[in-house]
Amino acid sequence: MTGSSLERVVLVTGGSRGIGLACARHFLALGDRVAVTYRSTPPPAEDERLMALTCDVTEPDQVEEAFSQVEARWGPVQVLVANAGITRDLLLLRMKEDDWAAVVDTNLSGAWRVAKRAVGPMVRARSGRIVLISSVSGLMGVPGQSNYAAAKAGLVGLGRSLARELASRQVTVNVVAPGVVDTDMLRSLGEARVAEMKALVPLGRVAAPEEVAAAVGFLASTAASYITGAVLAVDGGLGMGL
């Protein structure tokens, strides 16, 4: 597995926009074949090596179908980027059971489902890369995001446990923890809230999705072949090593 063009098979969940779409474009630029999953809006049809699949990662049957379609067309997934996620931000006293369950099921259990489906062929091939997209929220905590932060923190434990399980088969598992990134999810918070968040970032700016994608691409490359169980913060210093 290399960082150059070997036409790897890559699957990015939640790949129709934002960080997921930036990751898809990064791998396409390397010459890889990339499948992305989405729930409602498909990504732009901009490359014949891009396959778009409807898939809700909270539904095991849909996860199975997505992987089966990729395997039927291109073969086993060699690089998995578990990026699909949602938010339902509310203070704890206002948060309902469904708000908690939906976020944890999508952001944490969804990553577990796709990783579980991906690892069989990777283990048999004695090669593979899994990158879980967490968040600085999961490392430092954010008021009103107890569900989101808990799920994103859970990805660290999941990733490190899988890294230990799969290391003997040369499958690496790492976590990327973005900070404040210019996505639709961020812009929906409004200019005032975004300005407040940006002011907390030591580098003094919001990240571009492509900067997160570059970190993901590095962890999927041969340059990172001796890195597993790591948490790579792409947050402009916001978490400062948490």
Compact overview of the structure:
The protein has 242 residues and is α/β, with parallel strands linked by helices. Helices cover 43% and strands 15% of the residues.
CATH superfamily: NAD(P)-binding Rossmann-like Domain
**Secondary-structure element series:** EHEEHEHEHHEHHHE
Q: What structural class results from the helix and strand content?
A: alpha/beta
Through-space gap between termini: 30 Å
Helix-residue proportion: 40-55%
Kindly estimate the percentage of residues that lie in beta strands according to DSSP.
15-25%
Based on the model shown, name its key terms:
43% helix, 242 residues, Rossmann fold, seven-stranded parallel sheet, alpha/beta, disordered N terminus, globular
Give a verbal description of the structure.
The protein is α/β, with parallel strands linked by helices and 242 residues long. It has one domain: NAD(P)-binding Rossmann-like Domain (Rossmann fold). Helices cover 43% and strands 15% of the residues. The protein is built from eight helices and seven strands. Strands 3-2-1-4-5-6-7 form a seven-stranded parallel sheet, with helices on both faces. Helix 2 (60-73) runs parallel beside helix 3 (97-125). The protein is globular, with a radius of gyration of 17 Å.
Q: Could you give the topology of this structure?
A:
Elements lengths: L8 E4 L5 H12 L3 E6 L11 E5 L5 H14 L5 E4 L14 H29 L2 E6 L3 H4 L5 H21 L4 E8 L5 H4 L3 H9 L9 H11 L11 E4 L8
Helix pairs in contact: 1-8, 2-3, 3-5
